[in-house]
Amino acid sequence: MSPVLLSALALGCWTRAPGPAPLAVAEGPVATFEERVPANAIDLVLAVRAGSAHDPSGQEGLAWLTAHALVQAGGAPLEAALHRLGTTLSVEVGPELVVFGLRCRVDDAVACAELLGATVAAPAWDTQGPDAGGADLSAALERVRARARSRLAEEALGPGAALADRIFDRWTFEGHPYGRLPGGRSGALDAIGPPDLVRFHQEHYLRPATALGVAGEPSAEAVVDIQAALGGLAPRLYVDATPRVLPVVQGRRLLVASAPVSQDRAVLGHATELAPDHPDRLAVEAGLGILAQGTDSRLGRILGPEGGEGALVSAGLDPAWMRVQPAARVALPLGAQGDLSRVAVALAELRRLVTEGPSAQELDDWRAVAVGRIQAEVAAPQDRARDAAFRHLLAAPDASARLAAVRALDPAAVQAALARHLDPDHLRIVVLTAAPARYEGLGVEGSGPPAVPPADGAPWASVAPADYGIGVAAVLRASSEEILR
Amino acid sequence: MIAARLALLLALQRPAPAAEAVDCGPTDEAPCVVQAPRLLPAPALARTLPSGTRVALLPFPAAGRVALELRVLPPGGVRTEDLVVAWLLARHQGGPAAAERRLARARLGGVESVVAVPGGFAVRVEGPSAALPELLALEARRLHELRPSDDEVARALAGVVTERLGELSRPDAQVVELVRPRPDLGAPPSGDMVRARIQQAWGGAAAVLVIAGDVDGATLDGPLDAAFGELPPLLDAAPLPPAALLPAVEQAWSDSAAAPRVVVAWQGPTTAPGSPEHAVRSVLAELLVAPGSPLAARLVDSGLATRLWSPPVPDGVVVAAELAPQVHPGAAFAAVEAAADELLGVANGELEARMEAARVHLARRAMLGLRRPADWAAAVAEVLAAGAPPESVDQSVDQLRQVQPEALRQAAVALLRAENRREAVLAASPGAGQGAP
Questions:
Q1: Residues 344 to 363 of B: which have CB under 8 A from any A CB?
Q2: ipTM (interface pTM)
C-alpha cells in the first residue's frame, strides 16, 4: 500500500457527508469559558479547529507545522519571556483540534494572556510584512520541519501500542480526512513552504473556530487583553472538515505491519458515525469496555492468567475531542508464539457481545468505573475549562449529561446499540510485529483451529500458517515506515 | 497589536531585577520585594504510625476529591525483587484476593497508577473524598497480603523484562538510565527470594503516605491506624554493595533513537529535596541548560542540537541534548565540557546575574507544577521520603533564593570534575547519523 495510492484514495473519497453544516457567528469575540476558582495560578487553554483533518492532500503535516511554527517564529524573545515566567507554551495537534496551553502565576496573567493571544492570532511572521514568507518564517519552518521529521522517524519505530494505533488510524480512515495523521507524513513535509503556513493560518485560525478556556482568578484586564489579542483572528465562517463519508470495509482485512517492537500487538475495528452527541455512543462505549478494557474485561480475564497481559488489552471509541467520527477498536497483545489465536478469541467475544449483550453485573461494574472516570476527568478547574472549550467546538455533551446517560444504560440498550453500530464481519485487523515471517502463509479464507480457546486454559497450539478461522478477505504486508511515509 | 506585542516581548527581555526582586512580575519597572509564595495550599499535619509509616495530611478544598500517594522506599536500594513486587502491585496480582480488591477500588471511583520514583515506587490513587476510608483500607491490605505464588513471580519477571525492552522504544526515557546503575535482570530471583524481600523491605517503616485534597484530618485517625498502623515491621535489609561505576563513556544503541542523544552526568553525593545542597544543584543545572546560556548558544543556537535539557536526578547534575542530523557526539561533548569550564571561570557579578534568572525560573516553575491534589501529594511524599518535614516543600523556594554565588561556585568546583563525569551516547546504530567529530 503506497502513499501515492492512499493519496489518490483520499482525493477520490473526500466528499462531505449529508447534513447541515454547523453555523457559527463569525463576528464577535472568541467563545470563552471561565472556571473561576481561588488559585495562585491561571490556566489558559486555546483550542482551534485546525487539526490535521484540515491538511490538504499531499501536504500532510501542514497543521502540525503551522501550529509549531507559530511558537517557533517567536524566536529567542518569546523563549526568554516564557522562561522568565517559569512556564512553557504547550502545543498539541490532533485530528480535529490544535490546542495551545499556558499556565502562569496569577500575577503574570496579563503578560501571559497577551503572549498567548499574540502568538496565535498575530504571528511573528506578520512582522516580515507583505512578503510573509520572509527569512524568519523560513528559518522557523526549517526548525519545526527537522523536529517533525525526527519525531515521525521515531514514532514509526515504537512504542508498540501507540504505533499499532497509528497504523490502524491510517488504514481505517484511508481516503478520509482522518487518514492524515496529526504528525503528517515524512514524504509530504518537503512539499510545504512558508506561504503554505501563512495560508493555512489565514484559512483555519478563525474566530468562530476558536474557543478559550480559563481557570483560576485572572484579573478582568487579563481577560480583556486576551480577547483583544484574539480579535486579530479572521471573523470568517468556519467550514467544517468533518464529518465526511466514511470508507467502506468489506469482509475482514488483515494488515501485517513490521516494526522493531518488543511484543506483537493487534488492533481490530472500524470507523463509526457515532458523533459526540449520538444517543448510542455511550452504549457502544460500554459494550467495548466490557469486552476489552483492562484486566476486568472479558478479554482481560481470558488473557490475564497467561502472564498478566489482561492489563494490556484496551477497547473503546476515540474520544469526542479527538474525532467526531470515532473508530471503534480493540487492541491486544499477541502471544509469544506469534499466532492469531487471540485475535480469533477477540472476534468471537465481540460477536457474542453484539448478539447477546452484556450481563447486568458486567454493566454495573463498567458503570461504576465509568462514573469514577468521568468525575475524575472534570475534577480539576483547568480540566473543566478545557472540556468546555472542546465541547463548544465539537458539540459534545457535558459531564453531567454523560453521567446521566451512563446511569440510564441497561443491558438491552447496550446490545441494541452494539448491533446497530459494530460489525464483527466487516472490519480491519492490524498486526504489528518485529517478525513478519511468523504470519507468512496466511491466506485468504485460510483454515485453522476453531475460534474457541482451549477449555483448560492451556496455550493454543502453534499451527502456522493458520488464521484460526478468522476468515480474512485480504492480507496486506508492509513495514511501518512504508505505511506512515 | 503587533507593536504592543513587540513592546511586551522587549520588556520581558529586560535584565533581571536585583537579587531581592526575585518575585516581581516580568514587566515590573523597578525592583520590589514580596513574600515568598507558599507552595503548600495549607499547613500539613504529619505523624508516624505504630508501623513506622510516616503520614502527612494536606487538607484543602478540592471539590470533593482526594489524592493519596503511598511511596515505598525499599531499604538498601531497589533490587530486581523490588521491580517484581512493583509489577505485581501495578497489576493487582500477588495474592488470592488481589483481583477482588482491584474491582472494589474501581467501584469506589478510585483511579490508580504505580510509578517508579527515585529510590522506590509510588502507588497513586485519586477518588472521591467520601470513599477515602475504604480506599485506604484497600491499599493497606494490598501490601499486607502480598504473597505472590511462584507462577506469579515468574510471570512478573517476564513482564519486567518486557517493560525494560519497551523502554528501548522511548529514547528520552532511556537517557537518564544510561548514566545510572540499574538492577541487573540477568540474575532472576526465585519466588522465595521475592517473598523474603517483601517481608524484608516492603513493611510499614519503608512507606510514606500522603493524603491531599478534601480530607478531614480529625476523622481520619481511626481509619489510618486501622489500615496502616499494623503493617508488618521491616526485617533488617542489608544495603546493596556500592554500585560499580559505569564506564566513563557509555554507548547504547536504540533502534528507535532516530535522532542521537548525548548525555553528560556528573555524579556526586545524593542531596535531599528541600535542602540547601539540593537548591544549589538545581541552580547549577539550570545555569548550564537555560535558554541563552553559553551551552545553549553552542549547541542549540548554532544548530548542533535541536533540544537541550537537564533531567532531575538526586545524585548529581545531568545534561542531555538531542543532536541535529550529521552532528558527531564528540562535538556536543566538547561543547558541554567547554560550558562547564566557562561556568567555573565566571566572575561573581556575572554569575549573580545569571543565577538571578535561574532562581526566578525555578521558583516559578516549582509553583506552576502543582496543579492537582495528586501533585501536592507527590511533592510532600518526596520530602517525607527524604526524611524532611512537609514544610520543606515551601522551604525549597526559600532555599533557591538563598543560593549565593560562592556556594554555587564551591559546588560546581566539587562536582564538575573529570573523575565525576560520565558520558553516554544513544543512537540508532554505531556511527548512525554521525558526521565528522
A1: 357, 360-363
A2: 0.81
Chain A residues with CB inside 8 Å of B35's CB?
none
pLDDT at residue B285 in the model = 97
Query: B346, B413 in Cβ contact below 8 A?
Result: no
Q: Which residues of A touch B257 (CB under 8 A)?
A: 154
B289 close contact with A: CB closer than 8 A: no
Across the interface, whether the CB atoms of B256 and A307 are under 8 A apart is answered no
Strand duo A90-93 + A98-105: pairing = antiparallel
Closest CA to B167 of B426, B432, B375, B434: B426
**Average pLDDT for residues B400-421, to the nearest whole number?**
92
Phi and psi, residue B46, nearest 5°:
-120, 145
CB contact under 8 A, A79 and B291: yes
A165-179 pLDDT per residue, tens: 999 999 999 999 999
- Residue-level pLDDT at A82: 94
The three-state secondary structure class of B1 is: coil
Does B181 contact chain A (CB < 8 Å)? Answer: no
Question: Given phi > 0 = left and psi -120 to 50 = alpha, else beta, which region is B52?
Answer: left
Q: Find, in chain B, the residue whose alpha carbon is nearest to that of A374.
A: B109
Higher pLDDT, A266 or B23: A266
The model scores a pTM over 0.90: no
**pLDDT score for B359:** 92
Cell of B250: 557509555
Summary mean pLDDT of chain A: 85
At B249-261, the pLDDT tens digits run: 666 665 556 778 8
Q: Topology of A17-228 in CATH? A: Cytochrome Bc1 Complex; Chain A, domain 1 (3.30.830)
Pair A427, A249: CB distance under 8 Å: yes
- Tell me whether A326 touches chain B (CB under 8 Å): no
CB B314 within 8 A of CB B325: no
What is the average per-residue pLDDT within B132-157? 88
**Which residues on chain A are in Cβ contact (under 8 Å) with B138?**
none
Q: Is A224 on the interface with B (CB under 8 A)?
A: no
Interface test with B, best of A42, A85, A150 (most B CBs within 10 A): A150
Return the CATH number of the domain spanning residue range A244-484: 3.30.830.10
Contact B291 A83 (CB under 8 A): yes
Q: Which residues of A touch B108 (CB under 8 A)?
A: 368, 372
Per-residue confidence (pLDDT) for residue A253, from 0 to 100? 93
pLDDT-derived band at B21, boundaries 50, 70, 90: very low
Listing from the earlier edge strand, what are the strands of the sheet with A327-333? A314-317, A327-333, A265-271, A427-433, A252-258, A472-479
Structural domain boundaries in chain A:
17-228, 244-484
Residue B228: per-residue pLDDT: 86
- A115 interface with B at CB cutoff 8 Å: yes
Same fold, A17-228 and A244-484: yes
